[in-house]
């Protein structure tokens, strides 16, 4: 991951490796203290945004989800449904691995535990994961202005 330069969407789509990205930037076990603090700062701000009662509703559309779930952990408490979108299929495939509990999916447990600690009960992290998996109902790939469904869970609308 380090040292790669992406010149445009095509390079990004061909060369970007979601698992390397996640391991580099979203692991409390690796990376620098600064990177860990940035993640904690983001989680704290997302928690504050969604827990104050000012933001919530029926559907949240996350534009540019990437292969990540951290930005949705507090949101799943105040939205009935979350739709994830991204530019590259490989990002959404990595996201789907986690949503479906597939072997080799990225382990978000330390991030989820941190959010649960912010919410007051670190021990309920498995409940939080289950709730997020239920709440993220669709994942769309957005490519050159076209939307196509990568995956859909649940009954047809």
Shape: globular
Spatial strand sequence of the major β-sheet? 1-2-3-4
> What is the straight-line distance between the termini?
39 Å
If helices are DSSP runs of H or I spanning 4 or more residues, what is the number of helices?
6
Mean pLDDT over all positions = 87
| Low-confidence runs of at least 5 consecutive residues | none
Briefly note the structural class of the backbone: alpha/beta
Helix content: 40-55%
Strand content: 15-25%
Largest sheet: 4 strands, mixed
Radius of gyration: 16 Å
What is the total tally of β strands?
4
Order of helices and strands: HHHEEHHHEE
Structure in words:
Belongs to the class I-like SAM-binding methyltransferase superfamily. NNMT/PNMT/TEMT family. This is Similar to indolethylamine N-methyltransferase, isoform CRA_b. One of its GO terms (molecular function) is methyltransferase activity. Keywords: Methyltransferase, S-adenosyl-L-methionine, Transferase. It comes from Rattus norvegicus (Rat). With 157 residues, the protein is of the alpha/beta class. Helix content is 43%, strand content 18%. It is built from six helices and four strands. The chain has helices at residues 9-15, 18-25, 33-51, 89-99, 109-119, 125-135, and strands at residues 57-62, 79-86, 136-143, 146-152. It has a four-stranded mixed β-sheet with strand order 1-2-3-4. Helix 5 packs across helix 6 (125-135). The radius of gyration is 16 Å and the shape is globular. It starts with 8 loop residues before the first helix and ends in a 5-residue tail after the last strand.
């Amino acid at each position: 991951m380090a040292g790669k330069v992406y010149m445009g969407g095509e390079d990004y789509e061909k060369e970007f490796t979601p698992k390397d990205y996640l391991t580099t930037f979203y692991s409390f076990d690796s990376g620098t203290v600064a990177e860990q603090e940035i993640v904690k700062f983001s989680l704290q701000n997302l928690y504050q945004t969604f827990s104050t009662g000012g933001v919530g509703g029926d559907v949240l559309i996350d534009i540019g989800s990437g292969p990540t779930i951290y930005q949705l952990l507090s949101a799943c408490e105040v939205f009935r449904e979350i739709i994830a979108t991204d530019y590259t299929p490989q990002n959404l495939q990595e996201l789907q691995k986690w949503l479906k509990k597939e072997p080799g999916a990225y382990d978000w447990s330390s991030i989820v535990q941190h959010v649960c600690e912010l919410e007051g009960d670190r021990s309920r992290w498995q409940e939080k994961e289950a709730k997020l998996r239920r709440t993220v109902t669709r994942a769309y790939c957005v490519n050159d202005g076209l939307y196509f469904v990568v995956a859909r869970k649940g009954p047809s609308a």
